[in-house]
Write a structure and sequence with these properties.
CATH topology of the largest domain: Growth Hormone, Chain: A
Radius of gyration: 21 Å
CATH architecture of the largest domain: Up-down Bundle
Distance between the termini: 16 Å
Structural class: mainly alpha
Order of helices and strands: HHHHHHHHHHHHHHHHH
Number of helices: 17
CATH superfamily of the largest domain: MFS general substrate transporter like domains
Shape: globular
Largest sheet: none
Number of strands: 0
Mean pLDDT: 87
Strand content: under 5%
Length: 401
Amino acid sequence: MRRLLSYRDARLLVTGQSMSAFGDWAMWIVMAVWMKTLTGSSARAGLVFFVLGLGNLTGPLGGLLADRVRRRPLMIVTDCVLGTAVLLLLLVHDQGDAWLIYLVAFLYGVAGAVFFPARSALLRVMLPEELLADANGVLSSTQQGLRIVAPLAGAGLYAAVGGGSVAILDAATFAGSALFLSRMRVYEQKPEPPEHHFLRELTAGIEHVWRTLPLRQIVVGATIALLVIGFAETLIFSVIAHLGKHPSFFGVMAPLQGVGSIAGGVTAAALVRRVGDVRGVGIGLGVFGLGDLLLVVSSLPVVLVGFFIAGVGILWAIVAFTTALQTRTPLAIQGRVSSAADMSLSIAQTTSIATGAALSTLVDYRILLVAMAAVVAVSAVYLVTRREPPIRAEVAPLAID
């Protein structure tokens, strides 16, 4: 990590992204709370996150755009556009204005579908390959760490001053992110013009994932795991009830998983270097499955340990997964490969959340937790037992320091 932060551009990127992540976490929770306050409907509040997910479905187009223009200017423009769009929330005063919250949530999803593939590709340009896992670990652990405090800060500001104040804060963090990006000195060559028809260009990411054996293995293994991992979003409240706690106790447990995620992010690069990216994803999933299996035990200390372990495991898997996409993909299609993989995982996770919610009304939560852990374990074993083919992606040039 010390070597990573010796790069001026890396320091600027991490600082700007940390600022932006704080605003994101604060704004997302406030949009849902705001909708609940305006309409009195929990369902309409939950739809805020559904609409956010709909925006993410533009991922293939966002990935294509990220491969067709220089990434840093694209990220700056995206920050400026979304920072301006968030200020539309200043016009929300009563239930008749609630549709603006949905609009901003949708734009958030669309902007993320452009920004994050571009960021993934930019890291390939600005850093040597051996530091990519470190960069992914720092960015992921920082984001998860802010998840502990930012929603509380956003909710507190909303309660004290109102949603408009949170929108202004969020807009300011986007401006800060754009400013730090503008200060970077990374050199990017102009992307090559399209070589194929639009549809072929759009699906190039999916095609590359399928033809590259390690990426195919990782995406298949992680997708299978995520088809059940989403069960935990509903089952955790059954766990809390079984322990005799109020549902609000989740606010105590979630930060512990965040602490585990920070620990996972800090140690993920060393894990990837030691075991490789494919096995790194498998080990991460296996540790996450073990953490969730501990939730079956009717003991609060054991459940809390399970939450921490699950946080470590999921960050190991995320960092290894992201690093594999970067190092095993030519720079020219980096954005499309990133968006294609993210789409597969997002669809699987969304499906599992809905399935888990339905099954929780029919099946004992402990049976579902054991089933979830078993499926995740199968995915983990599958990935851990794969051979690690050599990496044959383009070598990224060094950043200008």
